[in-house]
Amino acid sequence: MGTTTLLILDIEKGTVDMLGNTGTYLQRLGSAVAAARSNNIKIVHVITAFRTGYPECHPSNSLVPAMAAMGKFQEGDWTTEIHPAVAPTKDEVVITKRRVSAFFGTELEMILRCFDTEQLVVAGIATSGAVLSTIRHASDLDYRITVLRDLCMDRDEEVHDLLMDKVFKGKTDVITGQEWMERISANLSA
Length: 190
Fold this sequence. Notes:
Blueprint: E1 3-9, H1 13-19, H2 23-38, E2 42-48, H3 64-70, E3 93-97, H4 108-114, E4 117-125, H5 127-140, E5 144-153, H6 157-168, E6 173-175, H7 177-185
Parallel strand pairs: 1-2, 1-4, 2-3, 4-5, 5-6
Protein name: Isochorismatase family protein
Organism: Penicillium canariense
Pfam families: Isochorismatase
């Protein structure tokens, strides 16, 4: 039987800083990460970071030129450091992506296969970006997906709710972080 993996998307200091007012969000996310660790659930952290000089910057891409213009999210910059509220342990995998989806151009699929992952639990920023793109890709790869509604965040709350209530619901299991923690504590299907 396959395992469950918790996927934490784009909880870098720079992303958290841009959103502001994330205190209770980070506290809830930190609790879910602690619960996963205490229940021996694998955790994969995914960050966005570009090489010096942004060689990944293609003129037709709308995201990378904006990052390059800000001069942020380059490898080694403080903006790419994972926020201390969910900082990985030495045993947890950190994957660097250069596009929106955690799968595109990364080794995430290989890591999940090596973990024998069947169930993917997703949390992170932004619901309309990394979360949406990663869930769509994971669905095409036939993972069972749980989305932690209150542990995903977007600048636009209306878009967040639309994605959770209309797009993800029915295709994934959409629950709160607290509901998920109760499930794994009861050893139910995570």
